[in-house]
Specification:
The complex is a heterotrimer of chains A (290), B (260) and C (943).
Chain A (H helix, E strand, L loop, with lengths): L4 H21 L7 H23 L19 H25 L5 H23 L11 H17 L3 H29 L3 H5 L6 E4 L9 H6 L5 H25 L3 H24 L5 H4 L4
Chain B lengths: L11 E6 L8 H12 L7 E2 L7 E2 L4 E8 L6 E7 L8 H4 L6 E3 L6 E3 L9 H5 L5 E3 L6 E3 L4 H4 L12 H5 L5 E5 L6 H9 L15 E3 L9 H7 L10 H14 L11
Parallel strand pairs in B: 1-11
Antiparallel strand pairs in B: 1-10, 2-3, 4-5, 6-7, 8-9
Chain C lengths: L16 E6 L8 E7 L2 E7 L12 H4 L1 H5 L9 E3 L8 E3 L2 H18 L4 E4 L6 H11 L4 E2 L2 H4 L1 H11 L7 E3 L6 E5 L7 H14 L2 E5 L5 H5 L2 E3 L6 H14 L5 H7 L27 E4 L4 E4 L13 E3 L2 E3 L2 H10 L5 H8 L3 H17 L2 E3 L3 E2 L5 E2 L2 E3 L2 E5 L1 H4 L4 H14 L9 E3 L67 H7 L7 E5 L11 H9 L12 E5 L12 E2 L10 E3 L11 E7 L12 H11 L17 H7 L13 E3 L2 E3 L9 H7 L3 E5 L12 H10 L15 H10 L9 H10 L22 E6 L15 H4 L5 E4 H6 L7 E6 L2 E10 L6 E5 L16 H4 L37 E7 L22 E2 L6
Parallel strand pairs in C: 6-7, 6-22, 9-10, 9-20, 10-11, 22-23, 23-24, 30-34, 31-33
Antiparallel strand pairs in C: 1-2, 2-3, 4-5, 4-24, 8-21, 12-13, 14-15, 16-19, 17-18, 25-26, 26-29, 27-28, 30-35, 32-33, 32-35
Classes of the chains: A mainly alpha (290), B alpha+beta (260), C alpha/beta (943).
The complex binds ligand MGD (2 copies), iron/sulfur cluster (5 copies) and molybdenum atom.
Amino acid sequence: MHPAPSVILFSTLSGLGFGLLAFLGFGMPSATGFVSFVFFTIAYLLAVGGLIASTFHLGHPERALKAFKQWRSSWLSREGICAVAALLVMGIYAIGAIFMGQIWTPIGIIGAILSIGTVFTTSMIYTQIKTVPRWHNVTTPIMFLTICIAGGALLSGEVAIAIPLLAIAGIAQIAHWVLGDKALKNSGTTLATATGLGARGDVRAFEPPHTGTNYLLKEFVHVIGRKHAAKLRILAIVLMVGLPLVLLMMSHSHVLAAFAVLSHLVGVFAARWLFFAEAEHVVGLYYGKR
Amino acid sequence: MTTLPTSTAKKLGLVIDLDTCVGCHACVISCKGWNTENYGAPLSDQDPYGANPSGTFLNRVHSYEIQPKDAPAQLVHFPKSCLHCEDAPCVTVCPTGASYKRVEDGIVLVNEQDCIGCGLCAWACPYGAREMDAEEKVMKKCTLCVDRIYNENLPERDREPACVRTCPSNARHFGDFADPDSNVSVLTRERGGMDLMPEMGTKPVNKYLPPRPKDRDRSEDVDILAPFLEPIATETTGFLGWLDKALDAMPGASKNGGKS
Amino acid sequence: MPKDQPDLDLSPKVSDEIRKTTCYMCACRCGIDVHMKDGKVAYIEGNKDHPVNQGVLCAKGSAGIMQVNAPSRLKAPMKRVGPRGSGEFEEISWEEALSIATEWLAPIREEDPSKLAFFTGRDQSQSFTSLWAQGFGTPNYAAHGGFCSVNMAAAGIYTMGGAFWEFGQPDWDHTKMFVLFGVAEDHDSNPIKMGIGKIKARGARVVGVNPIRTGYNAVADDWFGITPGTDGLMIMAIIHELFKAGKLDLDYLARFTNASCIVNEDPKSDQNGLLMRDENGEPLVIDKRTGELAPWNGIGVEPDLGTTHRHAGVTHRPVFHLMADRFLDPQYAPEKVEDATGISADRIKQLAADMAHVAFEEAIELDRPWTDFRGKKHDKMIGRPVSMHSMRGISAHSNGFQTCRALHTLQIILGAVETPGGMRFKPPYPKPATAHPKPHGKVTPGAALNGPHLGYPHGPDDLLLKEDGSAIRIDKAFTWENPLSAHGMMHMVISNAHAGDPYKIDTLFMYMANMSWNSSMNSTGVMEMLTDKDAETGEYVIPRIIYSDAYSSEMVAFADLILPDTTYLERHDCISLLDRPICEADAVADAIRWPVIEPDRDVRGFQSVLCELGARLNLSGFVNDDGSQKYEDYADYITNHIRRPGVGPLAGWRMGEDGLQDGRGDPNQGQLDAYIKNGGFWHSEVPTEASYYKPFNMAYQNWAVKMGFFDSVQPYIFTPYVEPLRRMQLAAEGHGRVQPPDHLRQQIKDTMDPLPIWYAPLSDNLIDTNEFPVHALTQRPMAMYHSWGTQNAWLRQIHGVNPLYVPTKIWKENKFKDGDWAKVTSPSGVITVPVAHMAALNENTIWTWNAIGKRKGAWALEEDAPEATEGFLLNHLIHELLPEQADGMRWSNSDPVTGQAAWFDLRVKIEKTTAPKESQPVTPAQKSPIGTGPKSQAWKLGK
Ligand SMILES: Nc1nc2c(c(=O)[nH]1)N[C@H]1C(S)=C(S)[C@@H](COP(=O)(O)OP(=O)(O)OC[C@H]3O[C@@H](n4cnc5c(=O)[nH]c(N)nc54)[C@H](O)[C@@H]3O)O[C@H]1N2
Ligand SMILES: Nc1nc2c(c(=O)[nH]1)N[C@H]1C(S)=C(S)[C@@H](COP(=O)(O)OP(=O)(O)OC[C@H]3O[C@@H](n4cnc5c(=O)[nH]c(N)nc54)[C@H](O)[C@@H]3O)O[C@H]1N2
Ligand code: SF4
Ligand code: SF4
Ligand code: SF4
Ligand code: SF4
Ligand code: SF4
Ligand SMILES: [Mo]
């Protein structure tokens, strides 16, 4: 798939943002006043920033409101609704915390669940896509959720929780890669089933329908070199999990914690770039590009 | 509406005959022409006269090569447009309801006014049947020429999809799969019409007729055919001997007095 | 309707108006419905009532809208201001353009009209342009047939009075086995596709003989991946088998072919090898009824195939005996040809047996009584449902003429021509060689030529030679080098004019042929010839070039004066029975184009320009007695020109004594309107009793005279034995007044055999085939028309580059990978190009799509267009001359009989190389006189 920066930015930032909101909602930390203001500002900047970024890839962002309509079947619609609900609920909760010094725990819990739910709906947008076998399995929501929660823990300064969560997130990410690498093959979808011609012999794409490019090729048939991908994976896992773990375990300094967050963010960004760039859409089969 | 209708009154779609398609791209261009001028936004082209031309097409013709074990390689031309799936994943993923499947006839359409251009439906389609128009930024797809097939401004005989009307080798057939006696149902039955990527569970309405067996090993035929080449002679003299007899035996030869 | 579904307008208005005219993107000439909105073209689709395409339309036809709005359209007349080839022009007025042309041409006509060479490419108005050239008085006129498919046309005409090409087609409704030799797309594009669809639906068999398995060959049930240039051998082997097994239609051969004619076999006679004739010059047969000689066409005669005629101690045999000698020769046994053809003896036999089976065991009978020219009544029409079709794959070789002849002979011995299920001619064909004009070349300063330029010679006396034996024509057509060059040899014009051989010319005037690029062999060499200057005078060696094109093609850059043409929707045209017909076997038809839109530029229809230029030059046929312009424009010519009494360019709605009538008649001022009202065409069905056996069928003959195809009934028989060839041989043997030069005698004896033969492509004997083991071919892409599909925004997305396809064997030998490039070398050139793998390909053949490669700056494309950077032409590897002979001479790379350009004789070697930045060779850019196209487009008129 084409790794669109806006979408990668969205999933990275809003994942982290909603993760933080979830922790705040659960009262970790259960700060009030200015401290909570800082936390909520960061969380909202990330979550809303991510959401705004995501609209950049829409052809018609001005019609974005229409996207709330189809919650009955569409995960994208559900994500929108969930995100707005999470932001509203957490907004009320934040007002209490910042301006009234009140922690409205039930509202916080609802907000936290909605925040995590938002990330879940996001992950389901990809998971439901059967045409991308790498995504269409349980590791996708697990990976999204664990990274979101680990990120939240990290950002909310809950070091003790963050360390194990980061490790779990790392495992989830690796599992996603490992399973993902076999997913297309295991899906049973090949050029033979795509064309229905497999019984006659080996099928090979001969001429593409156009010598020029097209939307499908640009959007779905992104191919990256294996070596390149392997290096990036190492880099991503080191930055996302490895380095933050080391930093967190070294000391509790704010500076190092900030570095850990930054490293994590870049790592997630790289992993998400790979999430798209490595995703093999079956339509590529038709173009002989798989 | 994004949810799929539980059933549709008709199941309109295409049968594409891979045995007959010569890969001429006529259907590709007639589709481009009709749909540029008709339903929704025109199908635009980017850098049309430059280094990297591309554009929106609703129908594209691939070609594949098959290498059988013990026979010469074969080439198959392979047109592909929306298959108007019964379980169309492109419809259910759409957040706005812009993508829908018509209850009357099962045609899967995009209501361009509602499309936010998120691209998700194209992600969900296994067949590459949807393309986002780069100019208008809305999702385009085969409409099954919904604005032709019922169009009362067209003479009756022209109420068929543009691609079907134009296909020179008659490799494209349009009809109602819900009717077991329709041309498309009969063709599908008789010629073993197949689904593409059945494992995707999309239940495509469009069917593909497989190429007939080719370059069949005809060693068995040799016995049947051998009599046809049974030598009557191997050089001119023998041949002329045979000829005399053959001419004599011909009707009219003796009747007309025969030769001296 | 469910509440969530949008309310769709299912009956939107389609257009304001439909204007029906004729497509132009190829010689198929389908009928089109042009949908108009606000006076502009909105959508083009096929005309369902049109006899050619019955509603279907190919990709090019449907993309016509992009042709009509292409940014590459020329805008106004131009004169060259930069050096030739640079593309630097200045726009001028039509008055200036026509004055310049007149200034250049008028003096030549007075002094020596042959100083003008007027060649018109893929002209659809040849009967008009040739009239103009005739009026001018130059012998130097032809269209593109010589480099296209004259082998096919000439072999067909000489053998049976019509070829496949545009003159004949399979009986799609009845055929049970269709064998296709060497066709990628053909001129009859849509009808062939429709026919294949039809017979496939019926379950009939399609057999493809072609080194490459794409397109029609991809849908063939059986594929014979033959080695290029060897079809003749395979066909001879099939005939060999059929003779050996006696699977011949003897009755048909006896009655309807010259197999029954008696050959003079007296070795001492100067008539040796010619047919014996009676005092009226009619060939003789032996009448079964009497056992005596009788004219072939005598009433009631029953020709005998078997009996010989003895006279003065010499036995004279019928042609059929000579055929047996030839075809039973063991050299044509399948076992003998399998190595050369690459097709196993078993498969050749199978094919022969299949043909025999279908022809004789699955024969069909139509209950249609008919009467032949000998007065014999037949109560049935017997069908041999084996049909064949062929085009450039066999004709674009230097042995193509004889290969085409072999193919026709195969059809004839099966009785499968003009019989149900076989091949049928399209009126006004069939028409034997004798019914065509002979070539004319008598030049008189200031006056018209003595007759039509092109035609069919019947012996040495008909050649166009000067007293000293040199060529009358600049292209050396109708000389001993290529005696039967019935379509001229356009591919030799620039090369000969540059060499001053046979003489120098002053002005080269061309129309719609991209001769500096894809229609020339050796394109780089040709561009050098066009720009070469005389060292002494500093003048261009070819002093003046006038060119008419509608678009900014490569050739435009090399002209001194440009006469910009309209596009096909902006002008009148006529597709005339005097030219290349659009008829189908069941109907005679002609058609027009008419201005369905007005040009938005300062351009004029070329034919109308010729009407005016002809008048300015005072050409006979183009001025009235008082010297005034005869035809105001082409529409005027189409309506009012009279070729023979009662016969004009269009056969429909002519004026008779009792009102309008078809075929013959006087001009009708409302004729064009009548065509427009009828959808742009006229057609008239062949009467049922005349539908088969046309050359022999009196019902057809009478109808043909009524329609004006001929002026008198003239039945004929097929001629597997071609006497004009034998007459040339006789000259080479020393008989007769007109003698070939000694160095050509052997070639004439070897190649001009009156019965089909096979010889290896000429260049194979002049190059080291071990060094150049690989055959290199091109094919037409179905969605592109030569060079000019490229300006089309839709089509160029489909074919923007052309990889060189390499078979598995060569792919592996060279360890090629996707994305690799190869250096391809022929005896005359080198190209470096991208390669791709193809398995369904003859193992010694490589190929690419034709004419995709473009010169930078042409066609209003940007200079980095893929066509110019990655696309390429194979033409750089093909030379217009053969390598040097032993005697140091270089002959044209053409068929020695017809002069057909031997494109497909090309042999190369191929090796892997590092990818250069661009395909090699690179031709420096030409300047675009009309700029480049827009950066994006969304073409829509309606809301
Ligand atoms: N779409 C489209 N249609 C066209 C044209 C076009 O440019 N585009 N051009 C028109 C013109 S001008 C012409 S002349 C016709 C030509 O129509 P075709 O005759 O179909 O022309 P080519 O594409 O040259 O195809 C030649 C075929 O012969 C095969 N071949 C080559 N050598 C041999 C051989 O030795 N034996 C056999 N059996 N096969 C061989 C090649 O593989 C190829 O398939 O098409 C006309 N129609
Ligand atoms: N390697 C290789 N070369 C080949 C062949 C091959 O098989 N292989 N095939 C050969 C054959 S058979 C042919 S016929 C030739 C064809 O080659 P060309 O005859 O050169 O064909 P086109 O490229 O179509 O060029 C025709 C020119 O006509 C112009 N034109 C188009 N429409 C109009 C119009 O309405 N009016 C005017 N005045 N001009 C117009 C176009 O712009 C173009 O410049 O190519 C030959 N060259
Ligand atoms: S082919 Fe693709 S776009 Fe068409 S209905 Fe099926 S999934 Fe949807
Ligand atoms: S691109 Fe348009 S039609 Fe497709 S899912 Fe998004 S909103 Fe729906
Ligand atoms: S049915 Fe209409 S929209 Fe669909 S591919 Fe055919 S022409 Fe295009
Ligand atoms: S128009 Fe018909 S023959 Fe041509 S590519 Fe399309 S389906 Fe195939
Ligand atoms: S075959 Fe195509 S290009 Fe040729 S005349 Fe017909 S529609 Fe036009
Ligand atoms: Mo041609």
